[in-house]
Amino acid sequence: MNPMNVLVVGSGGREHALAWKINQSPRVDKVFVAPGNAGTAVDAINVDLDQSDHPALIEFAKSNNVGLVVVGPEAPLVAGLVDDMQEAGLKVFGPSSAAAELEGSKVFCKNLLRSADIPTADYRTFRAADDAMRYIKDRYSDPSDPVNVVVKADGLAAGKGVVVCETRSEALEAIDRIGARKEFGAAGKELIIEERLTGPEVSVLAITDGETILTLPTAQDHKPANDGDTGPNTGGMGAYSPAPVLDEQTLAEVESGILVPVVHAMKRARRPFKGVLYAGLMLTPAGPKVLEFNVRFGDPECQPLLMRLQSDIVDVMEAVADGRLGELESLTFDPRPAICVVMASEGYPGSYEKGHTITGIDAADEMEDVKVFHAGTSLAGDASDGKQAIVNSGGRVLGVTAMGDTISAAKLQAYKAVSKIRWQGAWCRKDISDKALAVAITDRS
């Protein structure tokens, strides 16, 4: 079998992890990443094409004998890149635009969950900010009453269009930001107000071709910016896998009561789902409930999952694209846990400065069982004399990922690697995976 070329679309930590893992396949010759970052420039070949330029991406794939296209982020999936690629005769891993609406519209997702009787929080949807504000004022007539709601923008908002509210003024402010001031642009054309669920959050990712479902090991993301899950929501400050808070019995409930029904519901809606189905769950006292669905690998959950994956990911992606996932054997994973610690720019998730030189990445990468995945990085300087520096170009900059025999060992290795990396204003949470250690202590007591 002749080696194939693969094109990964995207520029974040997820895309670096995908390119790195795809490049390990003996079936692959070249891995291209469009547009990529400073890390994919080392582990693959960067292509200076925007992920929104569908014709240019198609032309590149055709002229470079690309046998498989892997679309990483949600925005090009929702925008129909998979549909356009397939129409051009290319093999693509990822859901169609119609299927990607599961993430592209929270209103569509919630309505689908309700119609399929899949457990989720009670909710109301609103097109007008005034109506949503009136609902809050009527429901919480006394401004001092405690409020337990979550206000969400309907569309894509880079993980930030969700506001957890504990007071009436916070809820009204969130509605104003999303629905009136349109802080998240078109994502706020509709908004959802739902009950706030309580319990630990966990991510369950599955790969499906619309018929067969392969559930991946559990993972747990850390959305709030600061230690102890405080501060504003971010795109994710770290993750680890597996997540011991989700036992095998509960995982079986998630598969039978959430994953299987949503795949069937999408098929009935004539939006068959192919790709990565990501369930963000809350483990409530009444059982697991869906917070959201994403239609791609989570970032940063992708990084520890792919560190642990031992199967050839290209075989899996091709089987999904061809609709023959049921022919594959189950996937194999390293039994050791993996932890990803996100290093961010000063000021993130608010405004931040770019262009600061990063040092120490090579030293961290040389450590045993460590891989530094780049997210918001780029190369600066003159390429002709080889003196290009790696600089920060985004809010979430690096995903320092490590494995160990135990969660504690993996955490220690990850933070040792973090300590080797420097740039002006760099910071990270210090408690990634502590939730897993707390579960282990509870289990022993």
Structural key phrases:
single chain, 445 residues, alpha+beta, Rossmann fold, Dna Ligase, domain 1, D-amino Acid Aminotransferase, Chain A, domain 1, five-stranded parallel β-sheet, five-stranded antiparallel β-sheet, 22 strands
Give a verbal description of the structure.
By secondary structure, the chain is of the alpha+beta class. The protein has three domains: 4-96, Rossmann fold (3-Layer(aba) Sandwich); 122-195, Dna Ligase, domain 1, CATH 3.30.1490.20; 201-444, D-amino Acid Aminotransferase, Chain A, domain 1, CATH 3.30.470.20. It has helices at residues 13-22, 40-43, 54-63, 74-78, 81-87, 97-104, 106-115, 129-139, 168-180, 248-268, 302-308, 313-322, 361-365, 407-419, 434-444; strands spanning 4-10, 28-35, 45-46, 66-71, 92-93, 123-126, 149-153, 162-165, 191-195, 201-208, 213-215, 220-221, 224-226, 230-233, 238-241, 275-284, 287-294, 338-344, 370-374, 377-380, 389-392, 396-403. A five-stranded parallel beta sheet has the order 3-2-1-4-5, sandwiched between helices. It has a five-stranded antiparallel beta sheet with strand order 12-15-18-22-19. The protein has a four-stranded antiparallel beta sheet with strand order 6-9-7-8, with helices on both faces. β1 (4-10), α1 (13-22) and β2 form a beta-alpha-beta unit. It is globular, with a radius of gyration of 21 Å. The N and C termini lie far apart (55 Å). The relative contact order is 0.13. The model has no long low-confidence stretch (mean pLDDT 94). Its cofactor is Mn(2+); Mg(2+).
